[in-house]
Amino acid sequence: MLRGGKVGLRARHEDDIPVLRAELYDDVVNSSRAESGPWRPITPGYQDPRLVVDDEEERRAPFSVVELEGGTLVGSTVLWGIDTHNRSAHIGLGLLPASRGKGYGTDVVAVLCHYAFVVRGLQRLQIETLSDNTAMLRSAERNGFVREGVLRSSAWVLGEFVDEVVLGLLARDWTRDAQAQVAVRTRG
Ligand SMILES: CC(C)(COP(=O)(O)OP(=O)(O)OC[C@H]1O[C@@H](n2cnc3c(N)ncnc32)[C@H](O)[C@@H]1OP(=O)(O)O)[C@@H](O)C(=O)NCCC(=O)NCCS
């Protein structure tokens, strides 16, 4: 398990799947804002690739997010689009509604930076999010991500086109403080 200050990132367990499905993917508004395609109902038992992990898929590293204290499931995160030639990847993240606004999102991004830059040796991370998603923008910026551009009207979200923001962080700009904090916590 990878450990941050408040949350841990561990492998997906079978019993995480119905919780994540009900609280993230069955929620039309959350799903429409977080996914690049339209919301559709998912048949119970369907091996949804967003939830059911394929350990042989080398371009994705999915995690379940749990509280360090008690181990309660609080969300899902993924390092996706892992490109070992350009040494880059993207971050995806969704927390259960009751676990938002507690600093967990910021902590997850910090842990994924450690995983990507230190464990995987990547040199660039990217996050795409809707321009009105203040919590995601702040979680990224708190970890040193900078806004690199705006994709105007690029996302169709529940009846309107919305801008997306592209944020990037290079390994060389990842702050020594952030690096040291996560490295200490992931030891042992
Ligand atoms: C986006 C998300 C991962 C952020 O995680 P979080 O744990 O809620 O965020 P944090 O508690 O770490 O807060 C980060 C910052 O955003 C601010 N913030 C949190 N919720 C906010 C809200 N609803 N509105 C405005 N600001 C908010 C916090 O005050 C904090 O700001 P600071 O760094 O200036 O102190 C989480 O809210 C979530 O899962 N949302 C739904 C799914 C989603 O949008 N995923 C991202 C798709 S790209």
Automatic annotation (TrEMBL):
EC number: 2.-.-.-
Keywords tagged on the record: Transferase
Coiled coil: none
Cited InterPro entries: Acyl_CoA_acyltransferase, GNAT_dom, Ribosomal_N-acetyltransferase
Limits of the N-acetyltransferase domain: 15-172
SUPFAM superfamilies the record matches: Acyl-CoA N-acyltransferases (Nat)
GO molecular function list: transferase activity
Class in the EC hierarchy, top level: transferase
Superkingdom of source: Bacteria
Alphabetized Pfam families for the sequence: Acetyltransf_3
Protein name per Swiss-Prot or TrEMBL: GNAT family protein
Organism from which the protein derives: Streptomyces sp. 900105245
